[in-house]
Amino acid sequence: MPKIFILLLVITGLFISPKTKIPDSDRAKTIRTSVWPKLKRELTAEGFKANTNIYLRIFKEHNVFEVWAKAGNQYKLFKTYKICFYSGALGPKTESGDGQSPEGFYTIGANQLNPVSTYHLAINVGYPNKRDALNGCTGDLIMVHGNCVSIGCFAMTDPQIDEIYTMVYQALSAGQSNINLDIFPFKLDAEHLRIYAHSPYMPFWKTMKPGYELFERKHVPAKAGVRGKEYAFN
């Protein structure tokens, strides 16, 4: 391991857990010790297994962050959080510095966790994804984090991110390889599409609609791929 990297780990308090291979820190461990027992009790009380798979969903217009947990072959809503602050207006992020937070279908893997973030704890949402890149979208390091301040990210309160981050960590450490995070401007139903019918983003939102509808029907996260330069779903 390079000496510079070792020095960075020492200075920041970051380390890679030898058991889970997930980035970790004393801060994150202390938080897990505090909040995970409560979350396990709540999961069990609602009929979930403690280390079940999870699915994340954001609705920007409603400032809502949802955590769904797997029960059998479907996912059921477990927790809903009020987003403290997100940057920009409705519509996707397209370039670095535009002040927008992204919209689309993203995945979270172990290397996207930052347990030593300046903003308490942070999870990289995975922007730009393949569709974003094919359409020339630029920018990176878009996070869900604490501290309730944001420039392009989704900011939560510290107690909220403590729970969200812990659930993500536990799901990954229990074997979930990637966690779907779907970010929508609003519920892509007939009513909202009618309200925003004249938005310049409507063609993009319509490409997201099949993925939204698949989850609404089946309660299983849609597998988002790309055909040409737009989303395609199995």
Describe the structure.
The N and C termini lie far apart (41 Å). With 234 residues, the chain is an alpha+beta fold. The relative contact order is 0.17. The protein has a single domain (19-221), classed as L,D-transpeptidase catalytic domain-like, CATH 2.40.440.10. The strands form four sheets. A five-stranded mixed β-sheet has the order 5-4-3-12-7, with helices on both faces. Strands 6-11-10-9-8 form a five-stranded mixed β-sheet, covered by helices on one side. Strands 1-2 form a two-stranded antiparallel sheet. The protein is built from six helices and 14 strands. Mean pLDDT is 93; it is low at 1-11.
Labels describing this entry:
234 residues, five-stranded mixed sheet, 6 helices, disordered N terminus, alpha+beta, 26% strand, L,D-transpeptidase catalytic domain-like
CATH class division = Mainly Beta
Number of helices: 6
Largest sheet: 5 strands, mixed
Helix content: 25-40%
Say how many strands there are.
14
Q: Could you say what the CATH architecture is?
A: Beta Barrel
Computed Rg: 18 Å
Predict the CATH topology.
L,D-transpeptidase catalytic domain-like
Sheet with most strands: strand arrangement: 5-4-3-12-7
Low-pLDDT residue spans: 1-11
CATH superfamily: L,D-transpeptidase catalytic domain-like
Report, as a whole number of angstroms, the end-to-end distance.
41 Å
Q: Return the structural class.
A: alpha+beta
Overall 3D form = globular
Question: What's the pLDDT, averaged over the residues?
Answer: 93
What's the SSE pattern?
HEEHEEEEEEEHEEHEHHEE
Q: Please give the domain count.
A: 1
Q: Classify the beta-strand content into a percent band.
A: 25-35%
